[in-house]
Amino acid sequence: MSFLPKEVHFSDNFEELADKIQEGGMLFVEILNDYKNSKDKLSKFKVIEHEADMITHRIYQDLHKTFITPLDREDIYSLANKMDSIVDMIDESASKMQLYRLKEPLSDHKKLALILNKSITLVNKSIYAMRNRRKNVNMILEMCIEINSLENEADNVLRQSMAQLFEQEKDAIELIKCKEILERIEETTDICEDVSNIIEGIILKYG
After folding, report:
1. DSSP helix/strand/coil, 70
2. pLDDT at residue 5 is higher than 80
3. Domain range annotation of the chain
4. Least packed by Cβ within 10 Å: which of 87, 101, 112, 125?
């Protein structure tokens, strides 16, 4: 059974949004790894963020046009909203690095971004698996558990990084910049977990 009605192509839109999130996550890693030459990539990320917004609004519009949906409207809306928030939060992290004129990303910025990308990959796979959710129940639930584990891993990295940052960084302004960006990246893994919780709820509710 399809995730949502074929006539409004909800499954297609969610998969397109999941791909856009993955594209943004990979680009963010590239920005961190080549920070000195990241200006063009930051501009490209704005395009990705806009495209994700457009897909999300398309889902909202289709939701209003569809009289009967096999899933609760609240679940559809919440899933689209939280998925779009992943891209928004990455965009905020990347934009603040430019706005604050961050000298250089920390190794832990990169470490958190890699954890985030693992979560995003699992979100992507989960969304694609939702097209045939009854066949893929166990696989989807296992991925949700793994996303939760990655969020815990990111939380641990954040705590350790904060302790090291306050101990070693003598420039108070630079400390504040690094701290906020670390927190934003970790918060994005929280949003990935929110997405997995919504998916898990759908699976448990509808099978």
Report:
1. coil
2. no
3. 6-206
4. 101
| pTM reported for the whole predicted model | 0.91
- Three-class secondary structure of residue 60 per DSSP: helix
Cα gap 146→133, rounded to integer Å: 18
Q: What is the pLDDT of residues 56-107, one digit of tens each?
A: 999 999 888 776 666 788 999 999 999 999 999 999 999 999 899 888 999 9
Q: Which residues contact 101 (CB under 8 A, 6 or more apart)?
A: none
DSSP letters spanning 92-109? HHHHHHHHTT-SS--HHH
**The domain 6-206: what is its CATH number?**
1.20.58.220
Fill in the DSSP letter of residue 135: T
Closest-CA residue to 188 (of 155, 166, 141)? 155
Q: What is the DSSP letter of 71?
A: S
